[in-house]
């Protein structure tokens, strides 16, 4: 185990902002280094143990949230709506697929975005691209788009607020299984998936009533374990929030329980891979369709040399048309190497396209097809389809097309609110959960 937490500085770090004032950045970093942890190392270890069960084939990951969280979006309503969507999805999977679900939010820290281009041009004006609220503002003005290190502090505080809400909701009664009906209120209750959910919730109610009559009322029914995660993109931030755990003497990035490396920063020899090698959190790596078997094996050697189960998840994001072609060899060779990884399917990022209106969108059908391909590949190889990683929101947005209450391309402008990629709305997320449960069961 290396304790060289600064070794990443010698290596190329892609996708970092050009801070106009290094001194200001350094002052912020010093402040961040003095702030309390957002999560505890022991909680990260608990998640690692749950992910080890996923790697063994005994549990399923449900990871999701916004593509890009915003500071303005850290409201009680928005956090509760995301949480209840995830809880509804988890209940569908737990009840219909009979599998324990590991719940991880792309929440409380998902504030930085990798971009394909460093600048954006509108009507002849060129400005720095929006890189997430942690770096700059979405408004297309020079003031908003100039990277501002004070935003790193705001990201910390916004994460703290969100995490506080999550902890209160999940431990304070809201996640109690007796609330299964309450999670289905408002617009989603009238959707086809909402009606299907109501039926399932009634069955759960009956089962609970029966258990209570028998005198059984286990603690697990009253609270849930919920973990935070984000793409650790801005290394100055995640490094400043890395602490040595007093129990074990080992370093953890205490800005989230799990962090992942994106498709654009996972190059071998990159600063990101180096930083991740030296923290002890459970980590993920996104793998796109160009990933070679060699890439995957070298990443495993670097990031999980001791083959610790639960430490490393591969989050594949191939695209619906490519997954059946590209995933089999990767899974087969990685499995043959003896490496223990959890395989998670991100059916979003390989399926983005631009609608005629200019909106970036995704078809729910493509998302469902990639997930189906993921299950087919794993079933054919006898490996475990370990989970899904999605972009969704708890609100009634119109960003992705399709679904039980179908959104068509002409609807996209109605309620298109994402700061980055298009998200599934709550009805579409429930549609997806029912489909995943079917796929899981029919294996
Ligand atoms: C993301 O998860 O929002 C993202 C940018 O994904 P990827 O790294 O897979 O492109
Ligand atoms: Co995204």
TrEMBL record:
The protein's Enzyme Commission number: 2.5.1.54
GN (gene name): aroH
UniProt pathway: Metabolic intermediate biosynthesis; chorismate biosynthesis; chorismate from D-erythrose 4-phosphate and phosphoenolpyruvate: step 1/7
Keywords of the record: Amino-acid biosynthesis, Aromatic amino acid biosynthesis, Cadmium, Cobalt, Manganese, Transferase
Annotated binding of phosphoenolpyruvate, by residue: 106, 263-264, 286, 317
GO biological process: amino acid biosynthetic process; aromatic amino acid family biosynthetic process; chorismate biosynthetic process
Enzyme class: transferase
NCBIfam families with a match to the protein in the record: DAHP_synth_II (TIGR01358)
Listed name of the protein: Phospho-2-dehydro-3-deoxyheptonate aldolase
Catalyzed chemical reaction(s): D-erythrose 4-phosphate + phosphoenolpyruvate + H2O = 7-phospho-2-dehydro-3-deoxy-D-arabino-heptonate + phosphate
The protein's required cofactors: Mn(2+); Co(2+); Cd(2+)
GO molecular function (one): 3-deoxy-7-phosphoheptulonate synthase activity
Family assignment from sequence similarity: Belongs to the class-II DAHP synthase family.
Transmembrane segments: none
PANTHER family: PHOSPHO-2-DEHYDRO-3-DEOXYHEPTONATE ALDOLASE, PHOSPHO-2-DEHYDRO-3-DEOXYHEPTONATE ALDOLASE 1, 2
Cofactor note: Binds 1 divalent cation per subunit. The enzyme is active with manganese, cobalt or cadmium ions.
Protein species of origin: Planobispora rosea
One Pfam family from the record: DAHP_synth_2
InterPro entries linked: Aldolase_TIM, DAHP_synth_2
């Amino acid at each position: 185990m290396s304790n060289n937490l600064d070794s990443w500085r010698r290596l190329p770090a892609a996708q970092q902002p050009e801070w106009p004032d290094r001194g200001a950045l350094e002052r912020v970093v010093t402040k961040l280094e003095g702030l309390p942890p957002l999560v505890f190392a022991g909680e990260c270890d608990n998640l690692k143990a749950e992910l080890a069960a996923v790697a063994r084939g005994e549990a399923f990951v449900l990871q999701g949230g916004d593509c890009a969280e915003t500071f303005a979006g850290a409201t009680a309503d928005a956090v509760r709506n995301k949480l209840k969507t995830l809880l509804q999805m988890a209940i569908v999977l737990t009840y219909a697929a009979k599998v324990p679900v590991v719940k991880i939010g792309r929440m409380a820290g998902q504030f930085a975005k990798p971009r394909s281009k460093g600048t954006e041009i509108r009507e002849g004006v060129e400005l720095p691209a929006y890189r997430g609220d942690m770096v700059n503002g979405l408004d297309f003005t020079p003031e908003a788009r100039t990277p501002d290190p004070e935003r790193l502090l705001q990201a910390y505080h916004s994460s703290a607020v969100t995490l506080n809400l999550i902890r209160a909701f999940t431990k304070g009664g809201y996640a109690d299984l007796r609330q299964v009906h309450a999670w289905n209120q408002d617009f989603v209750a009238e959707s086809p998936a909402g009606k299907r959910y109501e039926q399932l919730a009634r069955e759960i109610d009956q089962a609970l009533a029966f258990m209570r009559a028998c005198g059984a009322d286990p603690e697990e029914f009253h609270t849930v374990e919920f973990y935070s995660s984000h793409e650790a993109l801005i290394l100055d931030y995640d490094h400043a929030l890395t602490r040595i755990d007093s129990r074990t003497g080992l370093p953890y990035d205490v800005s989230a329980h799990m962090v992942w490396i994106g498709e654009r920063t996972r190059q071998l020899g990159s600063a990101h891979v180096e930083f991740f090698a030296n923290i002890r959190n459970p980590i993920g790596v996104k793998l796109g369709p160009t990933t070679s078997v060699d890439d995957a094996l070298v990443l495993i050697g670097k990031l999980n040399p001791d083959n610790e189960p639960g430490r490393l998840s591969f989050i594949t994001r191939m695209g619906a048309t490519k997954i059946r072609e590209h995933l089999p060899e990767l899974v087969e060779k990685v499995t043959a190497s003896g490496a223990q990884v959890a395989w998670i399917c991100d059916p979003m990022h390989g399926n983005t396209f631009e609608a005629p209106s200019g909106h970036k969108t995704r078809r729910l059908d493509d998302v469902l097809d990639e997930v189906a391909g993921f299950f087919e590949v794993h079933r054919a190889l006898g490996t475990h389809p370990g989970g899904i990683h999605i972009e969704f929101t708890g609100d009634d947005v119109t960003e992705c097309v399709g679904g039980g209450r179908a959104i068509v391309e002409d609807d996209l402008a109605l309620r298109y609110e994402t700061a980055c990629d298009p998200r599934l709305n709550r009805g579409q997320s429930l549609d997806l959960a029912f489909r995943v449960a079917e796929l899981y069961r029919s294996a």
